[in-house]
Task: structure prediction
Amino acid sequence: MNIRPVKNEKDYQEALGEIEKLFDASPDTPEGDRLEVLTTLVEAYEARHYPMPEPDPIEAIKYYMESRGLTSDNLEPYVGGHVNEILERRKPLSLEMIRNLHDGLGIAANVLIRPYELSSSLM
Result:
């Protein structure tokens, strides 16, 4: 099988090339198993060398809404009548709102609790 750790950019590029060749491999086959192992190695390398910053809480909420076809009205049960103020960054998320958004919609709490800028011109 000859799978080895992804230690540098050369190893990373080779692993990506092999993943591309195996992309359509069926699960529970030797090729599918190889794809799964290579993908895990590449993900670990990317996490170390290309970390992604946590999203801004308001942008995360907007993305969640857009990806699920939700409107401002759909958020009201979770943040009360403050939806527009929240989305326009005029009012910060409260701990209760964060809990409601996490429990009710499944938005990751660790994303929602991150600090973010409020719109100073509208406050």
Summary: The mean pLDDT is 92. Residues 14 and 95 are 46 Å apart (CA to CA). DSSP finds seven helices and no strands in the chain. The radius of gyration is 21 Å.
